[in-house]
Amino acid sequence: MSRPGDRLRAIAARVCSPRALERVLDPAIADVRWEHQDALRRHRRWRARWLRITGSLTVLYLIVRQASVDGAVSHRRSPTAPITRVLAASAALVGVMTALLIAILMSNTPFRVEQPWFFLYLLPATLPFTVPWGFALAVALIHTRWCWQSACQTLVVASVLSVMTLVTVGWILPAANQAYRAAVFGGPVSTGFNELTLPEMRRRLAEERERLSLPFGADRNPIDPTVDISESEYSYQSRLAVSVAPLAFGLFAFGVSARRRALRMLGMISMVVVHFAWYGGMRSPVATFSALSPTVVAWSPNAMSVLAAVILLASPSPAQKRIHRST
Amino acid sequence: MAKRSRVPTLSPKESLILELLVERGEMYGLQLVSASRRRLKRGTVYVTLGRMEDKGYISSRTEEAPPEVGGLPRRMYAATPFGERVLDAWTRVVGHLMEAFAK
Hints:
Chain A has 327 residues and is mainly α. Chain A is 75% helix and 0% strand. In chain A, helix 6 runs antiparallel to helix 8 (230-256). The longest helix of chain A is centred in the middle third of the chain and has 38 residues, at 148-185. The radius of gyration of chain A is 24 Å and the shape is flat. Chain B is mostly helical and 103 residues long. In chain B, helix 1 packs across helix 4 (81-102) and helix 2 (29-35) packs across helix 3 (42-55). The longest helix of chain B has 22 residues, at 81-102. In chain B, 29% of the residues are buried. The model of chain B has no long low-confidence stretch (mean pLDDT 86). The A-B interface holds A 3, 6, 23-35, 37, 54-55, 58, 61-62, 65 and B 28-30, 42-43, 46-47, 49-50, 53, 65-66, 68-70, 72-75.
């Protein structure tokens, strides 16, 4: 049987700095092992198991904490931090933000559900938000100088995350939503539009257009207000837009990363607020921007992020101008 | 420009750790957690101890581990004379403040 903290120490050695390993993680793991061994020697098996569980949770918390701190410190010390630091910090940030968001959602659920793994149904709904936020925040914190290598690495990772998000929102989220509804109502529930997969949504929209005699691309009849599929069109388009968010936000974060700390923080906070208000708010933005096409409304946060990234990348920061002058 | 001298400060957790170390002598992280009666948490005690070591309030030594523990040495912490002086001064300052605000 492995000793407590064996695997966690191997993970810590990869994602944390040697100093954090020596000063924080090794003492924590050593204490857990000593107490665990002491409990086994006294034949207190349940105490030993309890120490293993609580000790592992403590070490896991410390790894996440130290990886985030090291990521923030390395951004100050090494201007071209390797992508592994970005990935470690992203994983830590996504983990913490997902846990927080699920806790908030669970505390606001007005229903009592007896299933212990109920929170897993909420995971596919929270990850499409927390993945782009965590990744973009990590990029903005760790990269401080633009170079082709870091730009290419950021693009590759962002593309992979976008594909993963597309699979999540396109196929896993509808199934999880349906399971959540069934768990809340305590029995089978008819499938709503938001519980359809992406191809099913597209098919349903085409059928609706045909039934209401709407031309291709049109979502409402200006003469007859009852003929309106803009909300459904927005749901479909916003799922596609959310999948591209890691790429758009990663690009924006890369653009803002070489700027002053205050500007970086302001940019990232604004991005998170706009993203959540747009896709996670109780009120659909289609109702507010009724004059615009739902496709334009759904894609506007991504479009704004890419536009801001292009402006930032095209205009070098004062620090970069100094570097160019000195070389 | 001359370097500014920093006034040593103690957070409530640092103060508690120093009190325990001065009172009971050398201790390890989890021992401090159980001695504090849940006022210190497992997740924060090691970070606080590392920070206090950087500030010079405490020192640490490693205790060699038996083979069944996996070779990881246990870190034992003790208050330094500087830490003891800071705690003493801090306790007096807090006492004065309490008196002043109680009036």
